[in-house]
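Example record

One chain of 198 residues, shown exactly as stored in the release files.
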Amino acid sequence: MFEPLFQYIENYSSMTLTKEDQQLIQDAFKHKRLRKKQYYLQEGDISKYIGFVIKGALRMYSVDQKGHEHIVRFGVENWWMGDYESFNMLTPTKFNIDAVEDSDLLLVTNPQIQELQAKVPAVAAMVRMLDQRSNIATQNRIHAAISLTAEERYQHLQDTYPGFLQRFPQNMIASYLGISPETLSRIRKHSIVNKKVG
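Predicted structure tokens for this chain:
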């Protein structure tokens, strides 16, 4: 159960975890199983945990006044899921997170991750690297939303996270890209035709 997390921490920190480090990590995290469509976090709640995805797929989204869903991120194996603002500031979340597939997560609280950072150098290094990558990903996502055409956003997703297109239903992909399912369908048809012609 913990092996993927240990591997992830070592990869991101470029450090080797000792047996003591591993034990501290195991003591801090707890396992949570989610069934497909089960909520991990609901709008208005405080995100007490951040979760490392061992198995499965989740989505994080908001719902507007008209009842339309707006997906801000997906999470699959070896990704972290949670509302970082709510987790760090202890404010009610604006988002829902639910499981798109049956999922297994390892959850940790804010005080526990702070304690781990103080005791395990590899965890501190991993968190620093995660913060950097998260900032870059957010910047890229904002740039894509305001600068790229629908076709370019789809192409970028296909190039960056091709697995998402297989794992998540088309209506969710469309929501993530900020386009209608009809537009996505047209783009995909056009993309397939171009591949055949090319």
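Notes: The chain has nine helices and eight strands.
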